[in-house]
Write a structure and sequence with these properties.
Layout lengths: L11 H13 L6 H16 L3 H19 L15 H20 E5 L6 E5 L4 E5 L6 E5 L1
Antiparallel strand pairs: 1-2, 3-4
Helix pairs in contact: 1-2
Length: 140
């Protein structure tokens, strides 16, 4: 176990790189690209420069969160290196966001910007903001 002591370890980006390398290794024409991606992933796992690997992971997660934010989902940036409990936590968040989008509509108060969760399929309703007590009409 001392062999891995002080190394960065496996994180979300390393797992994605390993997955991509296995996809590129399916064809003999792209095998060199797959090998290069695999070596980058292994380098990240055994790297002792934890600060740089962490900043790479944060920039990757912020890049991924931009398209995911259109669906109201995001990956938390403060995930520690790979842990099965954290991975199940991320999937649980995705699942809850999808269930919530089905039953509720998220809107912002026009005055203070507070996020409000409104039930869907209720027609036109009068919404009262919890923060500033502003009343406004909203169609759900």
């Amino acid at each position: 176990m001392r062999f891995l002591q002080g190394t960065y370890g496996i994180d979300l980006l390393s797992l994605l790189l390993l997955f991509l390398s296995s996809l590129f290794n399916l064809s003999r024409y792209t095998r060199i690209v797959g090998l290069a991606i695999f070596l980058i992933a292994i380098f990240r796992v055994f790297s002792r420069n934890i600060y740089k690997r962490r900043s790479e992971l944060n920039s990757f997660i912020s890049f991924i969160n931009k398209p995911l934010s259109k669906f109201g989902v995001s990956i938390p940036i403060n995930l520690p290196p790979f842990d099965l409990n954290n991975l199940s936590y991320v999937f649980r968040i995705f699942e809850n966001k999808i269930k919530e989008k089905k039953n509720f509509k998220i809107t912002k108060c026009p005055t203070c910007g507070q996020k409000l969760r409104l039930p869907r399929k209720k027609g036109k309703i009068v919404v009262t903001c919890k923060r500033c007590s502003n009343k406004f009409d909203f169609k759900t």
